[in-house]
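Complex record, two chains
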Amino acid sequence: MTTTRAVDFRTLLSTRAQIGQTARGTIASTTRTVLTPLYEFGGGRPDPGSFPYDGLVDATARMMKEEGADALTYGDALGYAGLRDLVCHKYELFEGLKVERDNILISNGSSHALSLAISAFVDTGDPMICESPTFSGTLSTIRRHGPEVIGVPVDREGIDTNALRERLEALWRAGRRCKLIYTIVNFQNPSGPTMTMRRRHELLALAREYETMILEDDAYGELRFEGEQHPSLYALDDSGSVIRSGTLSKILGAGVRLGWLCAPKDLVPVMNSFNFGGGVNPFMSRVATYYMRDHMPSHVALLVDVYRNKRDAMRRGLLETLEGTDADVNKPEGGFFLWIKLPTGTDREKLATLAAEARVQYVPGGSFYPNGGGERYIRLAYSYESVEKCYEGARLLGNAIRGAMS
Amino acid sequence: MTTTRAVDFRTLLSTRAQIGQTARGTIASTTRTVLTPLYEFGGGRPDPGSFPYDGLVDATARMMKEEGADALTYGDALGYAGLRDLVCHKYELFEGLKVERDNILISNGSSHALSLAISAFVDTGDPMICESPTFSGTLSTIRRHGPEVIGVPVDREGIDTNALRERLEALWRAGRRCKLIYTIVNFQNPSGPTMTMRRRHELLALAREYETMILEDDAYGELRFEGEQHPSLYALDDSGSVIRSGTLSKILGAGVRLGWLCAPKDLVPVMNSFNFGGGVNPFMSRVATYYMRDHMPSHVALLVDVYRNKRDAMRRGLLETLEGTDADVNKPEGGFFLWIKLPTGTDREKLATLAAEARVQYVPGGSFYPNGGGERYIRLAYSYESVEKCYEGARLLGNAIRGAMS
């Protein structure tokens, strides 16, 4: 259709749409795509070899027989009860945490869950804190809401609570309240640390002291390869200040688009008021629930093995090729990502070119920093490619890094 | 978990969350639910007897074999290409309208589609126009965005374009621009008319003259029982001012949560910037596409027969029992609903009580009016119950109405 434009939509856009137009920054735009990558280490895509293909076909057939009509009409506002119960069961199974159905709100994946929580608290211009670095996808979600985003450094113990106190105090003295502190507690994305118990307690105390809410993202918690599991901030909290998000994306498949929020019961309907109507994915929720309620522990155990092997293969490839440099390759206790501090003097432009020629994809560190920085870092996802390709691609990238050192 | 609340989340809520707390108004809250209704004439739920249960199980199996890995990982930002193509095919098949994949943005059902469009244009306090009456679900969606909602009457030809001109002119003289005009063009929900060609042209001319956008909702267009089909506003528009929404909810099943926007290509990414990440329902989109691409015309033809019979049965029951009163029962040319003007002197409270005793559900007219009014009307959905129950329930309700006349 050819249009003679008489109405220029650009003159009618909302404030948030205008912010959105300037705040774009996706993985696609920050990686070279001249050649199709052969080693897709960019986004955190789950392992395709582990998807339960037959299991989901079977679950669809069983579900359709048992409750097909309910799956095909509008669903409950807070989500399919069976899935909300499954989330409660998951928390008890993996963490011994007891929550109830009314603490759980189902969403279209984790980013939608985070968006519901942010919408409930953040107006354009409000201050909100996140870790620096933090997950680039959530940074996009946050920015869409138009807050002032304040980054607080992360070190090996998790969020730097001294720096956090300074930021909160400065806001408080300026008569402003931080609305939310967004934190990724396990295998922090991208930089890897699991927050220590001391830091967890300090973070909770600061939220109480400065009267702010915590948004605890734990997309990868079950995929722990080693190291001690700590109680979640939600479990440790006794002041109703923690909202926690979770997802089936990493333990079943991202294509099901099912996530959730776990929150104090009286906050759940407030966040749900930002949900669009019709109930979240009644059909898909049932298929996922029918599969997972029979297979969750065994499927997660399988995935832990799969991803541990991939992490180790990718690290081996990097360590072999970067030996003798001052590069730092982290060793996360779980999750999907490695975080690499490039050797001194690495030419980032040259690295981008050499990596593209080797057809290895990565995400430059700068994508993860809310207020700039991170040039010295890159993130690699070992989740998607095979063990062999994780090793090969890591060696190719290690050599590209060497070639980019001046 | 018992919580010693130290952080009161209510003091931290966003403006829109506070609006949401006061603007709730769902069907559930406006119908009596003392006794479980036996005749569910409330919400527009699709006919459960027509769901293609086996067809969807089969489609799941075929899809999983052909492209299971893609179905289970993150999807394309604008939606599964196969589904976007299916929407193009649907428009051509039913309307002879040619659009391209890049005009289509997939959403989680129609209400999500509308929300994306509203988010792109409406800031809190901005004026936006809708029909009066209009769909209550969309009224909730609209109100969540916090605009000033201005209702314009609907008559038998659709939106009253004289009244619309007055509102637009008043806003213009006050130095304010209407951001969006929301309209339901076919079998208007709830009041039933299909907008005439004259009104369609007048509405488009007004949008151009007052430089505003039109949001054209057409959730039921294919389910036309009789009468002439007119080209959509989108098809008639030559100024890039129309965004159109559609859904699979009524022609496949609401539980799949798949809808879309059809819009000028350069506007699609702007609206998509309000989408959360991960792609909309990659798995579900594929299942629905695999089924619909083989069965769309035959399945829609079946549904047209099903719903026409239900409409006729419900009308018959009402007309038989309300004969001799001045009640008005409309005859929509398609869709899911009847709109009834109650007889003079009907006691609404008494009707609510008698209908609840007869276990017949309906929605009071007031739910559909953005600025008050509608007390004289009720809406009935004939979509969900069987032909027999549509007739029986309509007779019971007709008698309840008679009993409530003073």
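Note: The first helix of chain A runs from residue 15 to 23.
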